[in-house]
Amino acid sequence: MAFVKDMLRMWAHSWKRFISIAMITLLGVAVLTGIYAGCRDAFRSTDRFFDAQGLHDVQVLSTAGLSNGDIAALRKVNGVAKVQAERSQEVTFDLDGRKSATMQEIGTDGIDQPYLQEGRMPKKAGEIAVTRKFIRDSGKRIGSRLTVTPESASSDTSDTNDTNGADGTNETNGTDEAPSFPTKLTIVGVVLDPQNLSNPDGYSAMTSFRSTATTDYTFFAPSDGVTGTLCTSATLLVKGAAAESTFDESYENTVKQVTDRIDGTVKTDRQKARRQELLDAGNRKIVDARAEADKKFADAQSQIDANRQQFNQQVDQIVSMQAGAAAAGAAANGANAGAAAAAGATTPQLDETTRETMRETIIAASPELTQAKQQLDQAQSQLNEQKASTEQTLKTKENELKTSIPQVRWYVQDRQSLGGFSALKSDLDSIQSLGNAFPIVFLLVAVMMSLTAMARMVEEDRSLIGTYVGLGYGRLAVASRYLLFALLACLIGGGLGLIAGFLGIPAFLLVVLQGMYVMPGLRLEYDWLYGSLGIALFVVGVLAATIYACVQEMRQTPASLLRPKAPRAGSRILLERIRPVWNRMGFLSKVTARNIFRFKSRLIMTVGGVAGCTALIVCGLAINDTVADLGIKQYRDIYQYDLMVVSDDSDASAMRTKVASDGRVTSSLDVRIESGDLTVAGSGDGDSGKAGSSGSESIQLVAVPEKHLSDLGEMVTLQPVSSGILGTSGVGKTGSLKLDDDGVIVAQSAASALGVKAGSKVRLTNGDGVQATAKVSAVNRNLIGSDVYVSETYYAKLFDSKDAKNTKNSKSSEDSEALTWNAMLAKLSGSDTSQTDYAESLEEDSSVMKAVSCAHMADSFKFDLMGAVVALIVALAGGLALVVLFTLANTNVSERVREMATLKVLGFFDREVHHYVNREMMILTVMGVILGLPLGRLVGGMLTMALNMPSLYFEVEVKPLSYVIAAVATMAFALLVQLFVNPVLDRIDPISSLKSVE
After folding, report:
1. pTM for the full model?
2. Cβ of 289: how many Cβ atoms within 10 Å?
3. CB within 8 A of 130, min separation 6: which ones?
4. What are the backbone angles phi and psi of residue 640, rounded to the nearest 5°?
5. Pairing relation of β-strands 149-150 and 771-780?
6. How confident is the model at residue 344 (pLDDT cuts 50, 70, 90)?
7. Strand pairing partners for 235?
8. CB atoms within 10 A of CB 463
């Protein structure tokens, strides 16, 4: 019992150490669990919301729309639980200028159901539900009316119908028509689109570099009033996918099995079938047109023939009359009156030549007959010309039919293609990766500080330990006094850390997240397993340090422990050997120098602890600086062009004419831009990047004309990059990289994520879905987006070769023709504002699909969530620095109580004693700061590389101001600690402190 009471008294006497260990554990556990819990709560709430609203697992789009046969084929795919045919239409309306919206039919199969926030769901024709963004921008409310105008080419299917007319098939048993929605609309509800959770009322909406919306708003309408049998897309739910978390790899694998099956056979077969349907419809239209034309021509020919027959009859009558009269006159002049009578009674017989001559003479002599004959001849000539022209037109249409109807393309997409989903996932993944890395630094600092505190605690009880061991107490029993002390401090600190980690930090993160995204049903949850493991991690680290401290002392005999520890033998320090400096130093300065460098453990612990805390602050600021400069570096430095314009293949020429006629372009480069994929299959031969590396990345495939390969460097800064140590990279000289026909140039953002380097073999998928294995000739510096540059010749070699996978199934020989340059990179004249306005005006042109201003992208690039998390990390790192400095200062004072008492006996005033002690701590703090600043830069680089977000590469940047802030903050914490330490120095009693311990 006395042993326990003494242990409790010892604990109470060491309350400062107890608080220090508890605080360090609190901060460490809070960082370890807090960021994880906040991200996990967000993941779980959105996953529940997606399941409740039936967010599609797979979406299938087609350039020619989807028929009933396509939908039926998708339903037969193994692993598909449900298929919903989607109908939509793009419309425009006037809202402080021309605005666009997508009229979306609310599905009846429970997929992609909008979440009702206000009002009610639309049920009747003409009723719609709108998003809160539209309500905010328009000022309208429930009950307001709106009139919209369908766009002339509201979908890919409308072009098909305008060109080819009806395309009735066996599957549809009729004519497929593009969807059409009512134009007189009434707002009855406000909903949240599950495909886009961005918060329009928050402080930051979706950043523009990740926005994939092609229209300004989405309107949701019921099936009532919607006409048209052709579907614009199909959404699918996969069996077993709802049971998995949508953000886990297991979900991605489940969905990928189905998408692979669709890509494998269904996609190719239905693309061919759909194109054949369009060809058959075009042929039927030509056949019907020929039959209709033949009928019209036959009717016209019959009319002309009838008129000519009537005309000939009239002429023949006149010929007969003239022939009869001539015969009668000849008989009258003869001698035989009987012959005259006979001639008058019978019309003479004329040969054909004479008759034809008489016809021509009669027609020529009569203006009326001449005009009538000319009209008949002209009508016949016109008819013949029309027949020849129509036949030629129909033959031309027959010949052009195959080329006029492009290859049908299916796009099979999962949830990653949704801009709102991918943005949320990438944001949370990046924050979670920071939450996995920072606690390691906190744990190391906690172990160092625990070792320092517990070693001093054990050393202070040296004689008491010797007494207990001499009295027969086991060393384990004696050590349990300190182990239980450390364990209790860890448990109390860890418990408070769990409260902060599962309540405080997640609440802060979720407030920030809700400023960017709408997350219905969000709630805080506790993870028993993760929380227990978090505390256990710090308990093991602190107890290991305590055991080490106890073993170091208790391995001595009781007699040695009962005697005071012998003072450290005097020795010269290195500074003493530098005589010019040493001789000019004052007495107290020499004492300070000796105290700093003679006690190596105190030097290492203090400098190491301060350096670690400073490094954490620098690390947080480095991430903030890196993210802040991403947009400027990418859109000002790497992209030298000011404008990128993309059009559909059929509008490419019109787009270039439009841009050229505006007179804003100073120089330009025509390219072809396609959306594709870059895949690296795991291998151990090193040909695919890193051994065992694997993965896929969405890319922007940029094909450059062969004659203008050298012009690419004028539009994009080409700098080769190479992998360095610890995940860093080296950047080569600007202009030293050239695009050639030996391989592709891959963006650094994609190469870093997939482990690709120069010489690697990758599999590229182009816009047609054709795959081919390509060689990576170089990796180019690129921070935002994943561009892959390829020459025109190498593109043709990759995707037109016979051995390219699926080429023969996806491209016919007649399609292997020159590339269509559907995009333009251009440099513009004028200010940034005028360039942004010009890009916005271009998007209103019907020939332009997308116009992007680099000036606008550079100014609008934001990453608010990362900034908030960095602020949290810097605050926690500052708190850790304060606790570390407080622990080290108190340990320093407790070790030197007799020294401080001696100084007071010698006549030092309190302020002089403060200066004597604090000067050492400030010097050690400065040394720690000097070491921590470059260490923070290194750690920041490693953590930034660990973020590894899709289509982003974090090129580490630390501004000089960040170094200043980190140094000043650490020094300010050191000065703050002095305010707590000085009263302790004032309370030292010289008499009691100098009493002999013997």
Report:
1. 0.71
2. 15
3. 140, 187, 189, 190, 191, 217, 218, 219, 220
4. -90, -15
5. unpaired
6. very low
7. 59, 84
8. 16
Three-class DSSP category at 185:
strand
Helices (H), 500-599: 505-514, 528-554, 558-562, 579-582, 587-598
What is the rounded average pLDDT of the residues 921-925? 89
Give the residue carrying structure tokens 């200062």: 889
Q: Is 747:715 a contact under the CB 8 Å cutoff?
A: no
Would you call 598 helix, strand, or coil by DSSP? helix
Check pLDDT > 80 for residue 993.
no
Q: What is the largest CA-CA distance in the chain?
A: 190
β-strand 231-238 against 80-86: which pairing, if any? antiparallel
Token pair for 26: 């609190």
Write down the mean pLDDT value for the chain: 81
pLDDT at 50: 92
Q: Over the stretch 57-95, which tens digit does the pLDDT of each residue have?
A: 999 988 788 888 899 999 999 999 999 999 998 888 887
Please answer whether residues 771 and 806 qualify as being in contact, where contact means their C-beta atoms are separated by less than 8 angstroms.
yes
3-state SS of 273-293 is HHHHHHHHHHHHHHHHHHHHH
Structure tokens at 992: 């009691």
> Tell me, what's the pLDDT at 474?
86
Please write the tens of the pLDDT for every residue from 519-535.
888 888 888 888 888 88
d(C-alpha 732, C-alpha 748), whole Å? 13
Task: Return left, alpha or beta for 354; rule: phi > 0 is left, psi -120 to 50 is alpha, else beta.
Answer: alpha
Q: In 3D, which of 372, 373, 273, 359 has the Cα closest to residue 317?
A: 359
Mention every residue, 6+ apart, whose C-beta is less than 8 A from residue 88: 102, 103, 104, 105, 155, 179, 232, 233
Look at residue 222 and give its three-state secondary structure. Answer: coil
